[in-house]
Amino acid sequence: MDPSLQAPTRPDRRHALIQMAYQTIAKKGFEGLRVRDIAAQVGINGATLHHYFPTKEALIQAVVEYVIARLRLASADLTGTPAELIHQHLRHLYQLMKSEPTLFVVLTEIHLRAQRDPILQVIMQQEAYWHEWLTKVLRDGREQGIWSAHLDPTQAASAIITLVEGAGLWAVTLPQRIEQAIEQMEQWLGTT
């Protein structure tokens, strides 16, 4: 038997199931996510899948955690002035949109479903943390004189998040719009 067609080994199965569910959500949305199909695509039966994820919701939660972990990379290990932090953060997000556009498709699906599904509220908590971080960086920059005293850090953080989430909608179809939007945001903030 071709080794590439064999079912993943035990330690890899959980990750393979998360990846297959992630890819399915990207292609078909949550409505197309069928646990039996995910198990079959990974080369295991449904009972074995339930060993790793007792419910469909548990599998979805694991996908959400995976998405959050990937997005955290955009603000990890940033250093410098507030303007440099914002610049690096936006650049990292842009690079992530270019290299992993599927991530933003899945994120959009999660956001849409989170409005009516309590198990996905963790994404809203992460967005609140992101907003707090951006607000703090912008406030620090305003206090240091990098930005005008007229800059409202809370509103500017909301604008950045809205821009990034909106840009994520274009990650697959019109990636050049992302670069244009981020460049314009950076010009407005004077971070370039």
Write a compact overview of the structure shown.
By secondary structure, this protein is mainly α.
What does this structure look like?
The structure is a single chain. The chain has helices spanning 10-28, 35-42, 46-52, 56-72, 82-99, 101-114, 121-143, 153-168, 175-189. The chain starts with 9 loop residues before the first helix and ends with a helix. Helix content is 71%, strand content 0%. It is mainly α and 192 residues long. Helix 1 (10-28) crosses helix 4, helix 7 (121-143) packs across helix 8 (153-168) and helix 8 (153-168) runs antiparallel to helix 9 (175-189). Mean pLDDT is 87; it is low at 1-7. The longest helix is centred in the last third of the chain and has 23 residues, at 121-143. It has two domains: 3-54, Homeodomain-like (Arc Repressor Mutant, subunit A, Orthogonal Bundle); 64-189, Tetracycline Repressor, domain 2 (Orthogonal Bundle), CATH 1.10.357.10.
